[in-house]
């Protein structure tokens, strides 16, 4: 389905004068298109899960804008990270938590990978645990991505599958994870703060992240997830299996919406 895009249209500067300008949207513009589409599912009086990351940020900005304009009212947001909490506060979105609101109407969040069955990899921004807790309590979970996030199988992007672990003996846990997936050519690496060599990245929950890189498909995702969770040092993994109810993908040719 073709769309009137919200993003700016950039001319192809290498094109001949007589050629029509080519429409090239940046990845961030595509993320914004998906995010704005997702906010169409938001109604007044909803309890909303507010995701984390550069795509979810656009959705939260839009919700703040609609509240300010009086087009939405009586929204309560449950943020999935401290950074989202701060963004929502700055937009005057009323906030609460799972203790007070254990059932949510809708959550909107991005993803790092989406496989053909709408299974997700999340957590490259480090927020997978709170995201999984909150998005697991939603009646509807709308996932918003640009088309670069679509993969044939989990791990196919060559980027990491994040696993949140307790800091205590993290090397031991990383080694167990790497061995668990040795047939898939797994390499486990401690996530470090950007720009540092060995300073561990610490999550909102005071834990570390082990990033798993695969050379091959790990196969049965449920079995892989259950096996990881059997290690006492593993807090949670970044595979969100069978959780998304709606997927919104923005690409150069338009926007697609899939429901489960
Ligand atoms: O921890 C981060 C979250 O799972 C994000 O939703 C995910 O990494 C996607 O982020 P982005 O929208 O910035 O690509």
From TrEMBL:
GO biological process terms held by the UniProt record: pentose-phosphate shunt, non-oxidative branch
Example GO molecular function: ribose-5-phosphate isomerase activity
Group of enzyme by EC: isomerase
Pathway: Carbohydrate degradation; pentose phosphate pathway; D-ribose 5-phosphate from D-ribulose 5-phosphate (non-oxidative stage): step 1/1
Pfam family, one: Rib_5-P_isom_A
InterPro entries membership: NagB/RpiA_transferase-like (IPR037171), Ribose-5P_isomerase (IPR050262), Ribose5P_isomerase_typA_subgr (IPR020672), Ribose5P_isomerase_type_A (IPR004788)
This protein's UniProt keywords: Isomerase
Annotated catalysed reactions: aldehydo-D-ribose 5-phosphate = D-ribulose 5-phosphate
E.C. code: 5.3.1.6
HAMAP family assigned to the protein according to its UniProt record, in alphabetical order: Rib_5P_isom_A
Entry's family note: Belongs to the ribose 5-phosphate isomerase family.
Protein name: ribose-5-phosphate isomerase
Organism: Artemisia annua (Sweet wormwood)
């Amino acid at each position: 389905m073709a769309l009137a895009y919200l993003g700016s249209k950039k001319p192809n500067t290498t094109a001949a004068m007589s050629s029509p300008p080519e429409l090239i949207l940046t990845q961030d513009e595509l993320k914004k298109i998906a995010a704005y589409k997702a906010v169409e599912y938001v109604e007044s009086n909803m309890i909303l899960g507010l995701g984390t990351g550069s795509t979810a940020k656009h959705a939260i900005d839009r919700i703040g804008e609609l509240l300010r304009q009086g087009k939405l009212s009586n929204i309560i947001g449950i943020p999935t990270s401290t950074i989202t909490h701060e963004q929502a506060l700055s937009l005057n979105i009323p906030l609460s938590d799972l203790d007070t609101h254990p059932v949510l109407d809708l959550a909107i969040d991005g993803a790092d990978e989406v496989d053909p069955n709408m299974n997700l990899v999340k957590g490259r921004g480090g927020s997978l645990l709170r995201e999984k807790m909150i998005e697991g309590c939603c009646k509807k979970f709308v996932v918003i991505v640009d088309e670069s996030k679509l993969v044939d199988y989990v791990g196919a992007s060559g980027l990491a599958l994040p696993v949140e672990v307790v800091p205590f003996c993290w090397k031991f846990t990383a080694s167990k994870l790497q061995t668990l997936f040795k047939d898939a050519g797994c390499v486990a690496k401690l996530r470090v703060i950007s720009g540092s060599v060995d300073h561990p990245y610490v999550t909102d929950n005071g834990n570390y992240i082990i990033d798993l890189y695969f050379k091959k498909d790990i196969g049965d995702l449920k079995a892989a997830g259950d096996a990881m969770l059997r290690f006492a040092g593993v807090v949670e993994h970044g595979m969100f299996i069978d959780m998304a109810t709606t997927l919104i993908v923005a690409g150069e040719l338009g926007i697609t919406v899939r429901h489960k």
